[in-house]
Q: What sequence folds into this?
């Protein structure tokens, strides 16, 4: 195999392998960030920032430039390996690794993985002491250093491992400073430091990895943004807030609007034409967080309001299927508990009412455990009732996540739903099933007592990563990191 055939092999055959590897990792990274990031994941996708007119987003220009350069390279590549095609490839290589937006997105994805707040300006740069009015942006080397450290904190070192396989600073520096030559077989750096000769085979592999790395990144990023156009538009949040997703037919996710119970709104929107924000502020120069101005706090109500009307959702629930999370509620629950206890003395119904009033979802969530499969497949839909089969346990028991949707939050409607669950369970018991259920949210804490060896003293331990104990919390970050997928031991009394 001659040199040109080797290079063609690198560019064509291995590109598919590279793309598959990068695509798989980015899919993992974005999924993990979405799982742990909450609203900060949304801020990351939108790159929440200050406002600007059209034509001031370098990410848009960089993306368009890469598409045009790539088209030129494909056209030139039909002629075979030429110096022109190599120069175009090097231009794309340098342009791609210099783009600022991917570094910002990668950094904040790592923040999301750690459940940390979004940072608009994670690479703050420096202000010279002699002239504090001037500003020196962080260079590429500094960005890589900061991002590497953030990846280490997130335990996602693989990102930089993949990046370092394609990144070569001597190639970037020599090309951008025109300190290189191209022979028939080599790319040679001619800078002041030690000269270096890089074979076209090695160079083409670096270029191919770079093209596929950023191609996979752009594809995943666009796919996720476009997916928002298919998701539901409104999302109920704690503290009586409603999140509205702003979407575009072509671009998918372009912004969000936060509705507050006093009628105020906060919004951010990023499109190719403009970047606008209302009642939104971001921390600059290394500071974290996105904050929203809520207007008159004295006029906030304990209702979910959208455009002046009471916001209600039908046939929706708090948890995803086979998930059992603590209720996130950032206000004092004393008034809710007092109100519930005035409505009913039934502790079971009290737990259901607490769930409804804190989350806003009119539903009863429960979990089933059986020694036999209740149905074929992973989901069973009944009138106003859904059952989802969770992963099998080591003991070969079958765990099911269930929900019944309510017409109202009246005691009679809740009792009717509980009666229906009990009839469902009793029917299977009569058929020889060892089956039982429990509601997810009860107004009691499960305590485990552990006796000491001398049997004279004992201690009480409460596991905070167990949703039976941690019924409600103001911020999930206060708890140990946990997988809130339903566990078999959570069904034990």
A:
């Amino acid at each position: 195999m001659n040199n040109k055939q080797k290079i063609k092999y690198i560019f064509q055959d291995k590109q598919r392998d590279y793309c598959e590897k990068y695509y798989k990792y980015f899919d993992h990274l974005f999924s993990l960030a979405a799982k742990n990031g909450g609203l900060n994941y949304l801020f990351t996708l939108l790159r929440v920032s200050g406002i600007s007119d059209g034509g001031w987003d370098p990410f848009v220009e960089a993306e368009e430039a890469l598409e045009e350069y790539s088209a030129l390279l494909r056209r030139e590549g039909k002629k075979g390996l030429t110096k022109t095609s190599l120069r175009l490839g090097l231009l794309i290589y340098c342009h791609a690794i210099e783009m600022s937006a991917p570094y910002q997105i990668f950094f904040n994805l790592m923040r999301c993985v750690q459940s940390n707040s979004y940072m608009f300006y994670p690479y703050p740069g420096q202000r010279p002491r002699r002239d504090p009015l001037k500003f020196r942006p962080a260079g590429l080397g500094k960005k890589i250093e900061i991002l590497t450290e953030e990846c280490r904190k997130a335990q996602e070192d693989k990102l930089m491992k993949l990046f370092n396989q394609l990144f070569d600073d001597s190639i970037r520096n020599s090309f951008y400073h025109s300190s290189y030559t191209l022979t028939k077989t080599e790319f040679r750096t001619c800078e002041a430091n030690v000269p270096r000769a890089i074979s076209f085979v090695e160079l083409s592999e670096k270029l191919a990895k770079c093209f596929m790395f950023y191609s996979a990144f752009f594809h995943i990023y666009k796919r996720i943004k476009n997916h928002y156009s298919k998701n539901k538009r409104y999302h109920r949040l704690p503290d009586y807030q409603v999140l509205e997703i702003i979407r575009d037919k072509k671009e998918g996710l372009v912004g969000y609007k936060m509705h507050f119970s006093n009628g105020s709104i906060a919004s951010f929107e990023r499109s190719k034409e403009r970047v606008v924000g209302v009642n939104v502020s971001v921390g600059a120069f290394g500071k974290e967080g996105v904050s929203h101005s809520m207007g008159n706090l004295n006029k906030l109500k304990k209702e979910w309001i959208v455009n002046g009307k009471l916001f209600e959702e039908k046939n929706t629930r708090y948890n995803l299927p086979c998930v059992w999370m603590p209720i996130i509620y950032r206000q004092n629950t004393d008034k809710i508990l007092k109100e519930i206890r005035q409505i009913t003395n039934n502790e079971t119904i009290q737990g259901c009412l607490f769930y409804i009033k804190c989350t806003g979802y009119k539903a009863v969530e429960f979990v089933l455990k059986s020694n036999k499969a209740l149905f074929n497949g992973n989901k069973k839909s009944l009138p106003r009732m859904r059952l989802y089969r969770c992963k099998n346990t080591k003991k070969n028991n079958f765990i099911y996540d269930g929900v019944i949707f309510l017409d109202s939050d009246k005691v009679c409607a809740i009792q009717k739903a509980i009666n229906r669950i009990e009839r469902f369970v009793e029917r299977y018991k009569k058929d020889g099933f060892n089956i039982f259920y429990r509601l997810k949210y009860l107004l009691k804490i499960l305590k485990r007592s552990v006796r000491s060896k001398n049997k004279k003293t004992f201690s009480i331990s409460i596991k905070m990563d167990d949703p039976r104990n941690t019924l409600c919390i103001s911020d999930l970050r206060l708890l140990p990191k946990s997988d809130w997928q339903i566990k078999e031991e959570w069904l034990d009394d």
In short: Residues 3-37 form the longest helix (35 residues). Residues 3-227 form one domain.
